[in-house]
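Q: Sequence in, structure out?
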Amino acid sequence: MNQAIAKAKLRRQFKALRAQQLPKVQDTIIQQVVNTIQGYLKAGRLRGHIGVYWPLSGEVDLRELKLNLKLPLALPVSGEDGSLSYHPWTLTPLRKDACMIPAPLDEAILDADEIGLLLIPALAMDQRGIRLGYGGGFFDRFRSNLAWRKVRTLAVLPQACISTELLPRDSWDVPLDGWISESGVARVK
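A: Exactly. Output:
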């Protein structure tokens, strides 16, 4: 089976598993995200904005962090060319980006040194930090830039979606630093 077919099959499998598991564990995952952020703050290891995402159906919904944490947050904006950038999430109304996801299009683009942590969605992860997403490549292209690769990046997903087997890896896949699940934060080994 070629890699593209294998990834498509895994996407279906993990999307169904995530949909089944997330309602049971979402609140606990959000609490673990808060605990992780507070731990980084206490240790002095978090500066600037925290990059979050606008949730698609079936993804962990982190929007309540905007109300509860009172920390500067940023949202991604996807471009027509497949690019991704992060912009401050302020009170300015959100508008749909190239992928039709609400985003702060009217805010300035943030540089990598203005973001201390990126939290991104995933269908699955493996122990190497390889993330299985939807196949658009937005985050891999974005993180292929060395400055952005240096920003601590964690996937947010149910523990059941942490693959015990290695996921297929293409040459453009950029490993993440770890993940946050209902079990807490885990770093890539």
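The longest strand covers residues 115-121.
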